[in-house]
Write a structure and sequence with these properties.
Helix content: 40-55%
Number of helices: 4
Distance between the termini: 35 Å
Strand content: 15-25%
Shape: globular
Strand order of the largest sheet: 1-2-3
Order of helices and strands: HEHEHEH
Length: 102
């Protein structure tokens, strides 16, 4: 599946800068239960190599109360249960992952 990002702005310098930001940012939607390696360990590996430019959101059918702390422990930005996964949850997780660190 390909994700398309449209940058619509009347100022070319901003469009170019926005494109560089999009090109430099990776979003990973990672299932927790994978064959061979679980999503928690895979997240740790990804973030150990590229932690500055990668945002990992863990997804699964498991309860949020149980897996949200595990997601945080492995460095994922958020855990979203598949039952509630949608544009609103994705947008709020993305926004939270991009908040400046105090």
């Amino acid at each position: 599946m390909t994700v398309r990002v449209l940058i619509v702005d009347d100022q070319e310098p901003f469009r170019l800068a926005a494109r560089m930001v999009v090109d430099a940012t990776d979003l990973v939607l990672m299932d927790v239960n994978l064959p061979g390696i679980n999503g928690l360990d895979a997240t740790r590996q990804i973030l150990s190599d590229q932690s500055d430019s990668v945002i990992v959101l863990l997804l699964s059918t498991y309860e949020e109360e149980e897996y949200a702390p595990r997601a945080a422990e492995c460095g994922a930005s958020a855990y979203i249960p598949k039952a509630v996964f949608g544009p609103d949850r994705l947008e709020s997780a993305w926004a939270a992952a991009n908040e400046p660190v105090a």
